[in-house]
Specification:
The protein has helices at about 15-35, 40-55, 65-75, 80-100, 100-110, 120-135, 135-155, 160-175, 180-190, 195-215, 235-245, 250-270, 275-290, 290-310, 310-320, 325-345, 345-365, 370-385, 390-400, 405, 410-425. By secondary structure, the chain is an all-alpha fold. It has one domain. It starts with 16 loop residues before the first helix and ends in a 17-residue tail after the last helix. Keywords: Antiport, Cell membrane, Membrane, Transmembrane, Transmembrane helix, Transport.
Length: about 450
Amino acid sequence: MKNGKQDSNSNSFLGLTPLIVFLVIFMATGIITKDFTNMPVLVAFIVVLAYSLCLNKKGEKLSIDEKVDIFSRGGGEPTIILMVIIFILAGAFYSVANAMGAVESTVNLGLSVLPTKAILPGVFMIGCVISFAMGTSMGTVTALTPIAVGMSQQTGISLPLIVATVVGGAMFGDNLSFVSDTTIAATRTQGVELRDKFKMNGLIVLPAVIVTLTILSFIPIGSATLEVGPYSVVKVLPYLSIIVCALAGLNVMAVLAVGISTGAVIGLGMGAFNFVELLGFIQRGFGWMEDLCLIAIVIGGIVELMKYYGGIGFLLEKVTSKVKTKKGAELGIAALSSLIDIATANNTIAIVSAGPLAKDITKEYDIDPRRTASLLDVFSSAFQGIVPYGGQILVAAGLAKLSPVELVPYSIYSMLMIVFGILAIVFGIPNLKRKTDNTKKVES
């Protein structure tokens, strides 16, 4: 490899096979059953872990206990554990906000300012705002899809088009929100700050947003009066608080703590729940993130085993042997994130899985870590909004009683994210001034 930093003699394709086994298990189950949700991701990774513990490095043979120690070091790596804590806090925030009525109020507030003649671009923008505030594309899809179905019935707008537009807006926030698990995963794996990743990321996807709005504005629709439910501006404050705190530069744990506290105080004050019920809602939020936390820990351990077996070095050697330039390395990072998301239908898992590999490539080719974090998030989120077996499209299609495949041709924003993501790599934009201590200044 470049600069001779990697000992090629220790690299081995065998060490890469755990990743291949996972892809085979996941894809084969989906193809055979015609439903990619039938293979739980955590179960698949546990099977891969069992396989990984059966391997041995060439010329060496470790006991199971020694391999478990290697796995534990990877799963218990400080970045992984901190990310787990942040995931749990994010779940608690969304649960409390949902319980005190913030989701419903935020949706209805957005609809109240929506011009009837601009329904499609308006729905997209509302989806962007809500998902950015909530930090969850699934929550946005769940909240907005029933409303989009009603709009379609009132105006005659194509149902697949307006539902796919909701998904597009949801993926915007999933990609950019300060409390999105993808943002947290991308920034944590690359050691960059939330604000810096947001700036880099925003400049890459802004053209996609503008073009999407332009396209949606030119699609003819009927006219009708939209029915908007009640809302309370006070109930929107938890989301506003996390946006303000994140933009002010508070670390992500402080941001989430402020959001949870704001939601709790408002919910208690308005009688949405009592103190005991509040504790239950916080616990419910923790539970929502349990699978993701366990997946992150197991992936961290498997990656550590793959490193020991020489699989990570083998992959980097092969990727970098084909890569001759920094742009080529960036395209490699984008492809890695995209392929894993296509295989797993989960952009957070794609980022967590590709993150350590991307970080090594970043160091090897002196890429701005902020840019790497953005590319990981942009491409994984873009494909997440296109694959018909992805959670967002499955939920949207289910609520609208459509086939998931019907939504894919109308996934305008997600497709444009890929286009402008590639253009950003090819033309080297945005070219923000790089911090000399960027890799040392870690958002915690």
